[in-house]
Amino acid sequence: MTELYKGLFPDRDGFVNHHALTFQENGVSFGWEVMTMFSKCTVALMLSVAGIWIHFPQDSVPKRNAEEGRAGIVGVWRGHSECAVKNGPCHDELNVYRFSKIAGDPNRFFVTASKIVNGKEIVMGSSACKYDEKKVALECDKPVIQMTVDGDKMEGVLKLEDGAVYRRIYLKKES
Prior knowledge:
The protein is an alpha+beta fold. It has helices at 32-55, 63-73, and strands at 4-6, 22-25, 28-30, 75-83, 93-101, 108-117, 120-132, 137-140, 144-150, 153-159, 165-173. Strand 2 and strand 3 form a beta hairpin.
């Protein structure tokens, strides 16, 4: 008869005999001490792996990649924006966004946003933006525009003062 984890349940007197714990498989019996040693080794292995993960945090961005990300923002971006507010004065538009660096701060940019009407570019406004290396995103001050940057694509939103999303923006960098 194979006894698996004998001793985990109280005996007739209500006592648990931990030292009698036995694990039997394929005719080989292991006592409590062997199982305790196995558990300690498993915990040590898990802590070692966790230590490696902590030593190399996943959200760290190499400096070279951050510089490449910032450098990729400067230039002309074209695309469209869609109204997020139904039955409002907003209309879907074709857009051109022109980004340039702001001197003295590698994470600050200036943007001029335009829409295309009858084939002509009409400037809607300009704003200062800050690049967040960890989020790989731009946030512009007034109006509030939040854009994620993914290589030659930018996607984001334009928000009203109350935080409501007014437009969804989709851009691709001009080659």
